[in-house]
Structures are given as structure tokens and as C-alpha cells.
């Protein structure tokens, strides 16, 4: 999510690591990440798809808005599927 933090982590690890900014709820962001990996490596050995968040977790279920639930599902469910489907050809 935060490109600067990712680059700082790479610097601290002193490793050969690429940082790819990716918003799993944004199709353009997903496609840009796929293009980066495709152009640089041509394949992907493993996909760790661990984006996730909880919205309104301090509210009673009866108090959570439908918009908040949609945000949850867009990030935690549909985002996971979108990223997996986009990167799947690189895993084969």
C-alpha cells in the first residue's frame, strides 16, 4: 500500500527485493503489478495474496452499514479473487 515504506523495508533488509505497489480493489493497479512482474521476470513462482482489513469491527452487526460490508467484501473477497485471476497465468 505504501511504496515508500516498502522501499525502506528493502533497504533495511539489504536484499535483492522488488517492491510493487498494488491496490487489490483497483483493476488498473492490479494490471500494472502484473505487467511489472511479467516484464521483469516473465513468470511468478509464488503468490502470497494476504491483503485484508476489517471495517467497523467495533460495531454490533446490526449497526454495520451495507456500504461498509461492501467495502469489506471488495477488499477481502473480490480483491483476492481479482489478484489471483490476474496473476494465475504467470504461475502456470
From TrEMBL:
Parts of the chain that traverse the membrane: none
MF annotations from Gene Ontology: oxidoreductase activity
Keywords, in A-Z order: NADP, Oxidoreductase
UniProt xrefs under InterPro entries: NAD(P)-bd_dom_sf, SDR_fam
Family matches, as Pfam families: adh_short
Family statement drawn from the similarity comment of this UniProt entry: Belongs to the short-chain dehydrogenases/reductases (SDR) family.
Protein name as it appears in the record: SDR family NAD(P)-dependent oxidoreductase
Species: Ligilactobacillus salivarius
Organism ancestry: Bacteria, Bacillati, Bacillota, Bacilli, Lactobacillales
Amino acid at each position: 500500500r505504501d511504496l515508500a515504506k516498502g522501499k525502506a523495508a528493502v533497504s533495511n533488509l539489504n536484499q535483492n527485493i522488488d517492491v510493487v505497489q498494488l491496490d487489490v480493489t483497483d483493476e488498473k493497479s492490479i494490471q500494472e503489478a502484473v505487467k511489472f512482474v511479467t516484464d521483469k521476470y516473465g513468470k511468478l513462482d509464488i503468490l502470497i495474496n494476504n491483503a485484508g482489513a476489517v471495517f467497523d469491527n467495533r460495531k454490533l452487526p446490526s449497526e454495520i452499514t451495507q456500504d461498509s460490508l461492501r467495502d469489506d467484501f471488495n477488499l477481502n473477497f473480490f480483491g483476492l479473487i481479482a489478484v489471483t485471476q490476474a496473476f494465475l497465468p504467470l504461475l502456470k
